[in-house]
Amino acid sequence: MPVEEHDIARLADAARLARTRAYAPYSNFPVGCALLLADGTVVTGANVENGSYGLGLCAERAAMASLFADHPPGERTIAAVVVVGPEGVADCSPCGACRQWIHELAPDAVVAFPWHGELVTVTVPELLPFGFELD
Ligand code: THU
Predict the structure, then answer these.
(1) Ligand 1 centre distance from Cα of residue 100 (Å)
(2) Share of the chain residues as helix, strand and coil, in percent rounded to the nearest 5
């Protein structure tokens, strides 16, 4: 599915709304993520931290986990992943763990995230070259 610039803008709006629901009291770094599915549906997620710091969940993986809860197999094709970090923060690229999840669950998606103050769009192999795969 071709993803247009207006799709990315709409997803960024949805990610910004999800970001308002982040639970990030430890880092004060709220992140929102929006996924565009092949049928046009938008699925969102926000980061959820924990007092046991290492257990925090990133917005991207929260969105992908929500996708599995709400959409049956066959309706989970992800065309785009858009991430927004805190207002005014120039860089918020997906972490290594999220890149690996995206590599497995959204291999054909375009991925957009704030970089040097701009929303840049890349392919998954650009985001994670040599991504791990079983077999
Ligand atoms: N975080 C995300 O949710 N996604 C990213 O792409 C980068 C980092 C979260 C993890 C943690 O809750 C906070 O941002 C600060 O690292």
Answers:
(1) 15
(2) 35, 25, 45
